[in-house]
Amino acid sequence: MDVSIVIPLFNEDESLTELSAWIERVVNAHQLSYEIIMIDDGSTDNSWEVIEKLRANNPNIKGIKFQRNYGKSAALNEGFKAAQGQVIITMDADMQDSPDEIPELRKMILEGNYDIVSGWKKKRYDNALTKNLPSKLFNAAARKMSGIQLNDFNCGLKAYKYKVVKSIEVYGEMHRYVPVLAKWAGFRKVGEKVVEHRARKYGVTKFGWDRFINGFLDLMSIFFVGKFGKRPMHFFGLWGTVSFMFGLMVFIYLTISKFFFDVTGMTQRPLFFFAILAMIIGTQLFLSGFIGELIARNSPERNHYLIEQKLGL
Fold first, then answer.
1. How far is residue 230's CA from residue 217's CA, in Å, rounded to a whole number?
2. Which of 10, 81, 270, 274 is the most buried if burial means most Cβ atoms within 10 Å?
3. 139-148, 260-269, 301-310: range with lowest mean pLDDT
């Protein structure tokens, strides 16, 4: 199969028929074998009924219906599991991503030998204050922490090699940082393509200000897990040892001062408590690292979602 188009969605019943018809026109014009995987993330409108009707007319359309809303990352993770195409392309269901970009994105993966090609919505139609400015801050922070020079980590229109999506796990709010997850998994050739950003035609945006806070926290999680996820003792053990040794040295200094030089007074008491506190914190950090090692070696699958129904999968 040439291409899998993975579309996570939540309450997008108005756009699905038009979007699927547009995708069909593009892939048929370029004679591509394809599948469209729509993941209904617990919609409360008629999205799943629309998907069932589309599937009845086109067997290349497949569906996954979550029992409740889990978020975009969960939807992408399940879509990646199901995808069978040589190239996997993700896009949003709100008609702001253009299916006309599919052939060129696929070409860049195959002929440019990229692991990932990320869309860059250079000209946007979103609200400048509530979406554009926070996105710029996010992208700057993500570039700094990850070393990946992308202008638009948030763009939902991306293309991946088959091997990439089968090698990573997407959870939390980490869908916007899939290139970072891929880099930590060893896929380092990341490209970028300027893509068309269209004004929203149907519905309303599903994202509020809380996504930016969660996004920053998840970026920090990715950085930590990517660097120390398989060896948490290297982080906790290091700083635990530093804290403990510092407290121990202060404690020894105070002990020697008291018993050999008879130095006492109010200034010594805070230092004594500080030394004890540093040793306690150091011990706790060291034990955290040890427990983290045990968890890392015996952790169950992180992603488990209740799926109410599947179509064609």
1. 20
2. 10
3. 260-269
Residue with tokens 């253009």: 98
> Do the beta carbons of residue 55 and residue 61 sit within 8 Å?
yes
For the stretch 48-85, pLDDT in tens is 999 999 999 999 999 999 999 988 989 999 999 999 99
Q: Between 3.90.550.10, 3.40.50.12780, 3.30.70.2210, 3.40.50.2300, what CATH number should domain 3-228 receive? A: 3.90.550.10
Kindly state the tokens that stand for 144: 């700094």
Which string of DSSP letters, residue by residue, matches 186-252?
A: T---EEEEE--BPPP-SS-----THHHHHHHHHHHHHHHHHHHTT-HHHHHHHHHHHHHHHHHHHHH
Span 122-145, mean pLDDT? Answer: 69
- Kindly tell me the sign of the dihedral angle through the C-alpha atoms of 104, 108, 111, 115: negative
For every residue of 68-92, DSSP letters joined together read S---HHHHHHHHHHH--SSEEEE--
Mapped onto helix, strand or coil, the DSSP state of residue 61 is strand
Cα distance between residue 160 and residue 16, in whole Å: 23
In the predicted structure, residue 209 carries a pLDDT above the cut 70: no
Within 13 Å and on the Cβ side, how many CA atoms surround 263?
12
E strand or H helix at 309, and its extent?
strand 307-311
pLDDT digits (tens, 9 = 90+) for 286-309: 777 667 656 655 555 556 678 888
Whether the pLDDT of residue 245 is over 80: the answer is: yes
Query: Which tokens is 157 given?
Result: 């229109």
Question: Considering only 23-37, 114-128, 141-155, 203-217, which range has the smallest mean pLDDT?
Answer: 203-217
Q: Which two tokens stand for residue 12?
A: 């997008």
Distance CA 108, CA 115 (A): 9
For 227, other C-beta atoms within 10 Å of its C-beta total 12
**Nearest-angstrom CA–CA distance, 84 and 2:** 9
Q: Which whole number is the average pLDDT over 227-240? A: 70
Q: SS3 of 39, please?
A: strand
